[in-house]
Amino acid sequence: xxxxxxxxxxxxxxxxxxxxxxxxxxxxxxxxxxxxxxxxxxxxxxxxxxxxxxxxxxxxxxxxxxxxxxxxxxxxxxxxxxxxxxxxxxxxxxxxxxxxxxxxxxxxxxxxx
Amino acid sequence: xxxxxxxxxxxxxxxxxxxxxxxxxxxxxxxxxxxxxxxxxxxxxxxxxxxxxxxxxxxxxxxxxxxxxxxxxxxxxxxxxxxxxxxxxxxxxxxxxxxxxxxxxxxxxxxx
Lengths: 113, 112
Known about the structure:
The complex is a heterodimer of chains A (113) and B (112). Helix content of chain A is 0%, strand content 51%.
């Protein structure tokens, strides 16, 4: 079955540690996205990538980093510079941009203690 | 800029109708609608493109008024399964604008 996988579903980390969230898709989609969701805030774009080895900052990129070495994979690193990292993180992909629907993964809930 | 959704929350009895509005301050290329149940991923409902027609299937439909930069989602004869938070996402019509910007959501609760 085609889809997007994110792992792990729940993640706990101590303050000051970097942590990497995994996102893999087998839909052969060119574009991939990372969103952060906080209660009452909707989804906010962190980073997006239109093609391998290229990515752009979204609205809240500070304290995060990404890589896109393979078409299928778009990992997100939450660095210690991110001041309030506890949130629900969603990865998505689409065949292209603008006029295409985005398919979402199940999400990773990160809690920083 | 984030689109504004209204209402923020609505409670319906099964069989009742609802309208959720999405308004933007900028010219739009497309409007996307998603539904999310608690703790789960958002699920795509439909996309409306500039110059396109009103879309829908069975009891859920949507419209897009390009001149007013507004979209509305119509849910008719609501079912318990319609409960969740509905998000609109907008893409601006400016050159090189690809980012999908989501509203804060409308929480819909359908009760028996």
